[in-house]
Amino acid sequence: MAWCAVEVLNDVAEAGLVSLPKDSQARFPGISELAESFGLSALGCGTSRFLKEKLCEMHPAGREGN
């Protein structure tokens, strides 16, 4: 059972994702899978935050931080 669905919301979000350092981009699929399988609480503090009701942003940290 999926806890949530992870989607890239729009072109602005897509551009933000592809502008991340490569190591942060590489972590995004794994973080997404964790969120979808176990919920946002499985990600730990600092990896995601709610913006409003059903919308959150994810911060895949790389070697240089978030």
Key attributes of the depicted protein:
single chain; 66 residues; alpha+beta; two-stranded antiparallel sheet; 38% helix
Strands side by side in the biggest sheet: 1-2
- Give a quick account of the main beta sheet: strands, pairing sense, barrel closure: 2 strands, antiparallel
Radius of gyration: 11 Å
Helix/sheet category:
alpha+beta
The count of β-strands is 2
Estimate percent helicity: 25-40%
Q: What is the domain total for the residues? A: 1
Compute the average pLDDT. 77
Order of helices and strands: HHEE
- Give the end-to-end Cα distance, rounded to a whole number of Å: 29 Å
Q: Count of helical segments?
A: 2
Structure overview:
With 66 residues, this protein is α+β, with helices and mostly antiparallel strands. The protein has one domain (11-58). Helix content is 38%, strand content 14%. The chain has two helices and two strands; from the N terminus they run ααββ. It has helices at residues 11-18, 22-38, and strands at residues 48-52, 55-58. The radius of gyration is 11 Å and the shape is globular. The model has no long low-confidence stretch (mean pLDDT 77). It has a two-stranded antiparallel sheet with strand order 1-2.
